[in-house]
């Protein structure tokens, strides 16, 4: 039973447009959410996070939105750049232990 | 400051062989983790160590053992490798609010 789901395995977007990556979760105990970016043959790198006490967090071109009632979060990238092409993982954690549960990832391709 | 380092980068084993994956971090983080990544399944937690001297099972611990040798080092051992353990293994460490990942070890078990 996947507690964190990324239902779109892939997404293609034109350079300069908005990329929207989605993530759903089922465990209502999750109170902290993160997005990681992963290039081939490298480890995932942290992108942005959000606590459940917020519904939005921004960092430059990246914004994460959290809808607790729908158990849904999304990552917006504006404007998208070819260097953003990577696999994006959504992750969630609960309590002080902060062990992460990951989604299966979405491959984003930004076309020049 | 090298972050999280993992050795080896690649390894091919035969079924039944044993090996140890090494991980070290130089960021003075208390928590360390081992994950495996398989196609279409994201990263799954194998074992973690919240602090030096403690280890706990994650989601998929069967077939693995770990040792938290000191604050810097956290190793993962496969005692008798099986083809189902073919995967990419990532070590990570955490100061609390995010995990910093190593570059990964690609393991193939024939």
Tell me the number of helical segments of chain B per DSSP (H or I, 4 or more residues long).
Answer: 0
**Greatest interface (CB-CB under 8 A), with counts per chain:** A-B, 23 and 25 residues
Mean pLDDT of chain A: 94
Q: Radius of gyration of chain B in whole Å, from Cα?
A: 13 Å
What does this structure look like?
The complex is a heterodimer of chains A (112) and B (110). Chain A has 112 residues and is mainly beta. Chain A has strands spanning 4-5, 10-14, 19-25, 32-38, 45-51, 56-59, 62-67, 72-77, 86-93, 101-102, 106-111. Chain A has no helices and eleven strands. In chain A, the strands form two sheets. In chain A, strands 2, 4, 5, 9, 10 and 11 form a six-stranded mixed sheet that branches. Chain A is globular, with a radius of gyration of 13 Å. Chain B is mainly β. Classes of the chains: A mainly beta (112), B mainly beta (110). Chain A binds chain B through residues 4, 6, 9, 32, 34, 36, 41-46, 49, 89, 97-105, and chain B through 4, 31, 33, 35, 40-45, 48, 50, 58, 90, 92, 94, 96-104.
What can be said about this structure in brief?
The complex is a heterodimer of chains A (112) and B (110). Chain A is mainly β and 112 residues long.
């Amino acid at each position: 039973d996947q507690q964190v789901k990324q239902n779109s395995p892939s997404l293609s977007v034109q350079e300069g447009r908005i990329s929207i990556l989605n993530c759903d979760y089922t465990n209502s105990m999750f109170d902290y959410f993160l997005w990681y970016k992963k290039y081939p043959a490298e480890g995932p790198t942290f992108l942005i996070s959000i606590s459940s006490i917020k519904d939005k967090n921004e960092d430059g071109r990246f914004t994460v939105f959290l809808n607790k009632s729908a158990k849904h979060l999304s990552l917006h990238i504006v404007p998208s750049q070819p260097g953003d092409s990577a696999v994006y993982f959504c992750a969630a954690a609960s309590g002080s232990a902060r062990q992460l549960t990951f989604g299966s990832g979405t491959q984003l391709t930004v076309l020049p | 400051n090298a972050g999280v380092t993992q050795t080896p980068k690649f390894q091919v084993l035969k079924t039944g062989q044993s090996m140890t994956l090494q991980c070290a971090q130089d960021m003075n983080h208390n928590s360390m983790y081992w994950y495996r990544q398989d196609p279409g399944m994201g990263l799954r937690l194998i074992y973690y160590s919240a602090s030096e001297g403690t280890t706990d099972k994650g989601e998929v611990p069967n077939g693995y053992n770990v040792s938290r040798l000191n604050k810097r080092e956290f190793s993962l051992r496969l005692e008798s490798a099986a083809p189902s353990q073919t995967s990419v293994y990532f070590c990570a460490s955490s100061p609390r609010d995010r995990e910093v990942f190593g570059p990964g070890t690609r393991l193939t078990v024939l």
